[in-house]
Design brief:
The protein is mainly alpha-helical and 108 residues long. It has 2 domains: 1-59; 64-95, no CATH class. The protein is 72% helix and 9% strand. The protein contains 2 helices and 2 strands, in the order αββα. The chain has a two-stranded antiparallel ribbon with strand order 1-2. It starts with a helix and ends with a helix. This is NF2L3 factor.
Length: 108
């Protein structure tokens, strides 16, 4: 009787584990679909942002009426909704200095 009860509990445990596996497989498929949808959405948003960026740059002019070159400038939006045109070489050099500081701190 004890052996029968033990086998019965083991079979019940196996059945529950099989149900859990099925549920997890269903959840995995659902998450894969969600991931695919999110990836597509991100790609669309990136494309829209890129189009907007090009559109904004096509309309910008410096003091002499010349267009800004998007290869040489960044558009920066601050938290107070101010928009700035910043030369890339200034931003790139600031990032390089920050990376140098981080590397020095890690080596110390």
């Amino acid at each position: 009787v004890a052996a029968q009860n033990c086998r019965k509990r083991k079979l019940n445990a196996i059945l529950h584990l099989e149900e859990d596996v099925c549920n997890l497989q269903t959840q995995k498929e659902s998450l894969k679909k969600e991931h695919t949808q999110c990836s597509r959405s991100i790609s669309r948003m990136k494309q829209k942002l890129n189009n907007l960026y090009r559109d904004v740059f096509s309309r910008l002019r410096d003091d002499q009426g010349r267009p800004f070159n998007p290869c040489q400038y960044y558009i920066h939006c601050s938290s107070d909704s101010s928009v700035f045109i910043i030369p890339k070489h200034l931003v790139d050099s600031d990032q390089g200095e920050d990376n140098d500081k981080e590397q020095k701190q890690k080596s110390d």
